[in-house]
Amino acid sequence: MTKPIVSAKYYAARFGQHIRENGLRSAAVLVGKNLIWPYCGWLIRRRIQAHEQFDLKHGLDTQTPIPIRDLEIWEPAAQYAVHYEGAAIPLVHRILRHLRTDLSRFTFIDLGSGKGRVLLVAAQYCFKSVIGLEFSKTLHDIAQANLSNFVKQGLTQTPPTSINMDAGEFDFSQFTDKVVFCNNPFTETLALRILDNYELSLQKTRRLVMKEY
Ligand SMILES: C[S@@+](CC[C@H](N)C(=O)[O-])C[C@H]1O[C@@H](n2cnc3c(N)ncnc32)[C@H](O)[C@@H]1O
After folding, report:
1. Are 92 and 120 in contact (CB under 8 A)?
2. Residue minimizing CA distance to atom 6 of ligand 1
3. What is the pLDDT of residues 129-139, one digit of tens each?
4. Residue 19 CA to ligand 1 centre (angstroms)
5. Do 143 and 176 fall into the same domain?
6. Given the CA of residue 139, which atom of ligand 1 is nearest to it?
């Protein structure tokens, strides 16, 4: 069955009639209801496209999400793990720009660094060091290839490192000043254990900067 072709003029006329019959307030609600979701969908599509272009431009693989079932599910860390999905690059830049301090004193640590997208961003700033902890060997290998490609293109100020390990086992006291970043990597159970580790590290070192979203 062919769809009837309805012109913009038709919708404008109907909208005008709605205003006359129900008032401006009701018309505004109607516009909100009908425009907000398409607008959100458009924003999401635009964000995905921008990240795909970023990957393409630099020869990277950071965009495709990977469910936990396709990773090392036999690892103890997998039971608390959230699937891989890269953070929005502009948001990470915005967070880092807000750290108005001498970054060269700080080690940047991404807990659950996946394919290393956040490390690629942090490496563009003048941190003392940039490291990411990733429990999945599959993702860690992809991250290493990404990081090496990015460094070769001369796009980093600080060489980034991906470490294949469970963030729950990490000893934070090795680093004095640190920026700790999390993009929804694991469930609350592990997050609480890691916060306990922080507290322990605070007893050994005095300064800590923590950033989460
Ligand atoms: C939502 S992704 C975020 C990836 C990256 N931080 C980013 O924002 O682009 C969460 C990542 O945390 C990893 N992860 C989950 N539990 C972990 C753990 N216990 N130790 C290390 N990595 C973990 C997952 O494998 C996944 O790659």
Report:
1. no
2. 113
3. 999 999 999 99
4. 50
5. yes
6. 27
